[in-house]
Design goal:
binds NADPH dihydro-nicotinamide-adenine-dinucleotide phosphate, 16 helices, binds 1-deoxy-D-xylulose-5-phosphate, 5-stranded mixed beta sheet, Rossmann fold, globular, alpha/beta, binds manganese (II) ion
Length: about 375
């Protein structure tokens, strides 16, 4: 039985992780979990999964819940995320919290030598170098949950990593893949949230529409697999059936395929090195699909992808600035405060005015993150 701490239990990945726990009650249990502000869903989760420790975002919610559930410990805020991530009974952390707020809890769990299954890509973007260095120092495995990175991993198992020549990340193209740049000027939040293949949280769905999601994933791949940016390609693949590919020096290409269902990579990260059955999943029927399509990315149409390559190649705190600017700008778009194309304008401005620091420590990263968010806010008002 693997005992899991789950960050972001009320979210899209969090809920699908709980589905996997339900599918395999003899394999997994959730000992501790965190949520944000969705208290009604939290109560349902507590009743069903009976965790021993729960963290909420706000102190008042922790107080109210502790009166209702007297046999459970409650904690809150960023310290609460750390408390859950380092919970003694858990050997695994599945980090599915949204945004760079997941950084400190990830580092804390690494220092406790937990196995880290990471969906929270913003942590790897804002502080990838630091996270990987700490993971190596403490011997904590970092296992990808993101579908592309899980596909890359599954396409590398048993291979000599030195013989890899290229990583090829597939991208659906997002909600506006068939629109011209001119048509993007006045798109609405509802239109942007209409992803063609995946049902996901709001922020990542907008990232997918700007292709910043793929940009974050290019950085995530460089960090996880220690690859040069010159050897990471992005390929538009509208069906999201091939989840990514690895090209080897002998020109062989290994890929992982499947119906778009995040429960499969979540389960793989939790069950590795075993493969467990997926009784609730839809099987891939290629004859029914008939055709798979591929095209190169237009970097003028999707400017965020270029920003991510630039930040990745530069390294240092510009990665934090880019990520924080994106988080703040996407939140503003979702709140109806800015237009869709202003997301990339704000990221570009934040990157242009950033004073880069190489090899930052955590305090520097947290400072840059906070200041960048403030700058974006001041541009909006
Ligand atoms: N959804 C997907 O299919 C995929 C997601 N990912 C990545 O996984 C991560 C989670 O994405 P997703 O599940 O879509 O996101 P959601 O928005 O659906 O869920 C986010 C979770 O984080 C919680 N949360 C948000 N902000 C805070 C905060 N400040 N403090 C504590 N908890 C907080 C939310 O709580 P509450 O709702 O209670 O307020 C919720 O539980 C992201 O990094 C995303 O890029 C990667 C691949 C696929
Ligand atoms: C499910 C998943 O991993 C998402 O990150 C997904 O990749 C989004 O799809 P696109 O960014 O390719 O639209
Ligand atoms: Mn992905």
């Amino acid at each position: 039985m693997k005992s899991i701490s789950l960050l972001g239990a009320t979210g899209s990945i969090g809920q699908q992780t709980l589905d996997i726990v339900k599918e395999h009650p003899e394999e997994f249990q959730v000992s501790a979990l965190s949520v944000g502000k969705n208290i009604e869903k939290t109560k349902e989760i507590i009743r069903e999964f009976k965790p021993k420790l729960v963290s909420v975002q706000l102190e008042e919610d922790a107080l109210a819940l502790s009166k209702e559930f007297t046999n459970i410990d409650f904690t809150f805020g960023n310290k609460g995320l750390v408390d859950v991530a380092t919970y003694t009974d858990s050997t695994y952390l599945l980090n599915a919290v949204l945004g760079s707020v997941g950084l400190e809890s990830t580092l804390a769990a690494i220092r406790q030598k937990k196995t880290i299954a990471i969906a929270n890509k913003e942590t790897l973007v804002t502080a990838g170098q630091l996270v990987m260095a700490e993971a190596e120092k403490y011997g904590a495995p970092i296992l990808p949950v993101d579908s592309e990175h899980s596909a890359l991993w599954q396409s590398m198992v048993g291979e000599n990593r030195k013989s890899i020549s290229k990583l090829i990340l597939t991208a659906s193209g997002g909600s506006f893949r068939d629109q011209t740049r001119d048509e993007l000027k006045d798109v609405t939040v509802v239109e942007a949230l209409n992803h063609p293949n995946w049902s996901m949280g709001a922020k990542i769905t907008i990232d997918s529409a700007t292709l910043m999601n793929k940009g974050l994933e290019v950085i995530e791949a460089a960090v996880l697999y220690d690859m040069s940016y010159d050897d990471i390609d992005v390929l538009i693949h509208r069906e999201s059936i091939i989840h990514s590919m690895v090209e080897y020096q002998d020109t062989s290409v290994m890929a992982q395929l499947g119906t778009p269902d995040m429960r499969t990579p979540i389960q793989y990260a939790l069950s590795y090195p075993e493969r467990l059955p997926r009784s609730t999943a839809q099987r891939l029927d290629l004859a029914k699909i008939g055709q798979l399509h591929f095209e190169n990315v237009d970097f003028n149409r999707f400017r965020c992808l270029g920003f991510a390559y630039e930040a990745g190649r530069t390294g240092g705190t510009i990665l934090t600035a880019m990520n924080a600017a994106n988080e703040a700008a996407v939140a503003a778009f979702l709140d109806g405060k800015i237009k869709f194309l202003e997301i990339e304008d704000m990221i570009e401005r934040m990157m242009q005015q950033h004073n880069n620091i190489q090899n930052p420590d955590v305090e520097t990263i947290l400072h840059v993150d906070k200041e960048t968010r403030k700058s974006v806010q001041s541009m909006i008002k």
